[in-house]
Amino acid sequence: MSTVDSFGAKDVLNVKGTEYEIYRLDKVKGSEKLPYSLKILLENLLRTEDGANITSEHIKALADWDAKAEPSVEIQFTPARVIMQDFTGVPCVVDLATMREAVKELGGDPSKINPLAPAELVIDHSVQIDAFGTADAITRNMDIEYQRNGERYKFLRWGQGAFDDFKVVPPGMGIVHQVNIEYLARTVMAREVDGVLRAYPDTVVGTDSHTTMVNGLGVLGWGVGGIEAEAAMLGQPVSMLIPKVVGFKLTGSIPSGATATDVVLTITEMLRDLGVVGKFVEFYGEGVSQVPLANRATIGNMSPEFGSTAAIFPIDDVTLDYLRLTGRSEEQVALVEAYTKEQGLWHDPSKEVEYSEYLELDLSTVVPSISGPKRPQDRIELDKAKEQFGSDIKNYAKEGEEAKSTDVSMSDGRAFELKNGAVSIASITSCTNTSNPSVMLAAGILARNAAAKGLTSKPWVKTSIAPGSKVVTDYYEKAGLLPELEKLGFYVVGYGCTTCIGNSGPLEPEISEAIQDNDLSVTAVLSGNRNFEGRISPDVKMNYLASPPLVIAYALAGTMDFDFEKDALGQDSEGNDVYLKDIWPDPAEVEQIIASSVSTDMYSKEYGSIFDGDERWQALETPTGNTFEWDPNSTYVRKAPYFDGMSMELTPVTDIEGARVLLKLGDSITTDHISPAGSFKSDTPAGKYLIENGVERKDFNSYGSRRGNHEVMIRGTFANIRIKNQLLDGVEGGFTRDFTAGGEQSTVYDAAQNYKAAGTPLVILGGKEYGSGSSRDWAAKGTTLLGVKAVIAESFERIHRSNLIGMGVVPLQFPAGESHESLGLTGTETFSITGLTELNNGVTPKTVKVSATAEDGKTTEFDAVVRIDTPGEADYYRNGGILQYVLRNLVRGSK
C-alpha cells in the first residue's frame, strides 16, 4: 500500500455523483509530454510510492524521460490484475499450492499465499480438434476434452475455492484474450482500498505472450512467465527498466482487397526489421481514429511476433463505443471517459509527444499477404506466394523430389493424389483474428460465394473453425453464414486456441501414413499468430499464417503451389473457371452485415453466465481445504520440487566449473523448441514415463496439458521434433551427445540425468533471438531442472531471459559481434565461468570470464556479458529464483 505522496497527487474525481480517489498526473512536472504508455507507468508509481522500493526519484526519472537515451533506470511496476490460461495457469496454481506448504514448513502463515490483486484464469488451451467436418464435432471434442483433462479441471476448481480473488472461466467459453477484451478488461479500475473507492488505469500481466491484445483497448499489459505472474499475484512488483517507446503513425485506410490480418503481417515485418525487443510501441496520429477496435486488438495481439513488450493504442471514442457494444455498464463507460480526460490519457492527435523512434504506415498501401513457412515475420505478398513456395520447398524436400506425390485411398471411398505442398490443415483459429468481425464475416461471405459457385474444399484438407467467443457463433447465425461455412466443411469444433497452440488433432490415419511413409512436405494454413516449426502438427513441415478468408481460399485450392491470380479454384455449374477475385467479399457488404448482425445483447447474453460453465463443469467433484491433497499416482498434477530442502538462509552464488554443453543451437530458437506444447510419441522420454505409470498412448494428451507434472515436462524439455542440436550431424529432435558415455548419442533427458549423477553442471550455447515466442515458463523451469546453470547466446528475447533468471539460470551473451561459431566452439569443450561470485557482494558484474577447454587441451577464453539487467533480477538470482525470493519475504513478513 502507498504510504508516501511526495507530489501531493492524491485527489478526488466526481463522476455523475460517485467520488473516486485518484492520483493526479498533472502534479508531476513534465508528465504532459510523456507518451500515453509512460503516463500509465507514471500513475502506477505515484499510487504505489512507498519511499523504499518506489521513491520520488523514480517518479522524477520517469517524468524526465529522455526518449533517445538507452534504458538504465529500474522501476517497479505493480499491475492491477493478472490473467492466465490453463496451460500456464495450472503450473501457477501448483506452485502456489506448493508454496502454501513451504511457508508452513518455514514457520510462516500459509494464508499469506493468496492473490493480492484480481487473478482470472480462462480455460482455452486444452480443446483439441479430434472431430471435424460434422455438426456434432464440438460436442465430441468437448466430451473428449473433459475425459482427458478432468483431473486438471478439478484442481483448478479447488484453486478457485482455496484462493481469494481468483476466478476461473470454464472450458467452452472462448479464448482468453478475446474474453479479456470483451469482458474481463476494466480499462479503468474502480476498487475499494482502505475503505475508499479508488480509480486507476487497468493494467495487467498475463501468462500468455498475447496478453498484449488488450493493448488495443488502451490497457497497458504484456505477457510474463508464470513464475513472474505468481510473484505479481503475491504483491511482488514487476521489475523493469523505463523503456524506449516507438511512435507508429497510421494514416490512410485499408484498401478493399486487403484485411486487418494483412495490416498486422505488414506491421510485424516492419517492426521486426526496426528491432523493438524490450521497447513499447505506441500508435498515434490522425489515422488512429480510423482504426476499428477489433483491428487495434489484432495489431496489439501480434506484439510478441514483432518482439515489443507492448503495442498500445490510446483511449478515444472508438474505445468507448466498443465498451458499450460489449455490454459494459454506462457507469463504467462514464468513468473511463471522465478519468482519461481528467488525467491527460485521452487521445488528442493534435498534441505532439516525443518518441524514441518513429515509423509510419499508410494503410492504403497494404496488400493481401500470408507469412511462413516457419516464422510470423516472414511475410509473403499473396501474388508472390506460389513463387516463394517453389523456392522454400527446396529446404524441405530432397533434391529432385520437390514435386513428389503419392496416391491415397480413404476408407470412405475418397481417393486422391497427395503432393508436396498440399494443404492438409486449414483452420480459422486463435485470438489474433477470431476476435475481429470484419475478417470472420469476410470468411463467411467468401464461403457463401464459393458454395454458390459449386466449389468445395479439397478432400485431404482438415477444416475447422474455433471462434474466440460464443458471440462469433451468434453473429454467424444471425447473418445466416454458418450453414454456408459448413457446406465447405468449416464446422465449429470448439471455443479455444486449438490449431494455433498445436491442438490441431491427428490427421486422418491414411493421410498421416501417406505423409510419413513418403516423407511428404505438406502444409497448414491457419488464421493464427504462431507458425513455428513442429508446433502445428507432427505431420506438417510448413506452416502459413493467413486471414480467415484466405484460410478458406487455400482449403479450396488444396495446395500452396497455387497462384490465385492465374489459377482457377474450380468451375461453376456452366463450366466457367472460378477465380478468387470472383468470390472475394465486397467490403461494403462486410460492413453492412457487421452493422446488422453484431449487437450488445449478444455480449450481455454470453457473458452474463461466463463463470457458471456447462453441465460437465458443474458436475465435476471439487476438492476443498486450504492446502491441496496431492495424489501420488497423478500424472497431471504433482507437487512442484522448487522448494525441496529450502531454508531461510541464502546459499552463496558460486562460479560454474567443469560444465559440459547439453545443446549447441542456432538462431531463432523459440520457447516451442525448448518446451513444446503439442503431442508426443510413446518412444520419447515423456511417453515412456507415462506408459510406465499406466497411461495408454491414446490418453497421452499434450505437453501443454501435462504442465502440472514436472516429471513429464523435464522429459519434454528440448524435445521438439524439429530442434537441431549442432552437437549431432543431421539429427532432428531431442537428442544430444552424452560425454559421460564417451560422447554417444542419447536423448537430452537421459544425458542430463547422467550428468546430474556425475555432478556435472551444464550450459547451453545459442545464437540470436534465443527464447523468442511464447511466454512459456516451462522453457525456463525445464532448463533448470535438467541441471543447466547458464545459457550463452548472441541475444535473448525479453520474457525468456527474465524467466531464466527467475529459475536461477544465468543468461550470458557472447561479446558483440562474436558467436560460438566465430569463436570456434564445437560444444565438446569443458566450460568454466568465473566472476559470478561478485553477486554475493551485492554487485552484478557486467561481464564474466568464460573459459572453454577442448579435448586436446586448447583453451578459448572470452568475456561474456551478464544479462541480469536490474537490481531486482540480481536479488532473484541470489535467492535461487523469484519464487524463493518472494517466499522468504512472505515468511519474514508473516512471523
Automatic annotation (TrEMBL):
CDD domains: AcnA_IRP (cd01586), AcnA_IRP_Swivel (cd01580). GO terms for molecular function: 4 iron, 4 sulfur cluster binding; aconitate hydratase activity; metal ion binding; RNA binding. Keywords: 4Fe-4S, Iron, Iron-sulfur, Lyase, Metal-binding, RNA-binding, Tricarboxylic acid cycle. Residues 688-816 form the Aconitase A/isopropylmalate dehydratase small subunit swivel domain. Its EC number is 4.2.1.3. It catalyses: citrate = D-threo-isocitrate. It is an enzyme of class 4 (lyase). Residues 65-558 form the Aconitase/3-isopropylmalate dehydratase large subunit alpha/beta/alpha domain. GO terms for biological process: propionate metabolic process, methylcitrate cycle; tricarboxylic acid cycle. Gene3D superfamilies: 6.10.190.10, Aconitase, domain 3, Aconitase, domain 4. Pathway: Carbohydrate metabolism; tricarboxylic acid cycle; isocitrate from oxaloacetate: step 2/2. Pfam families: Aconitase, Aconitase_C. Its cofactor is [4Fe-4S] cluster. Belongs to the aconitase/IPM isomerase family. Catalyzes the isomerization of citrate to isocitrate via cis-aconitate. This is Aconitate hydratase. It comes from Rothia aerolata.
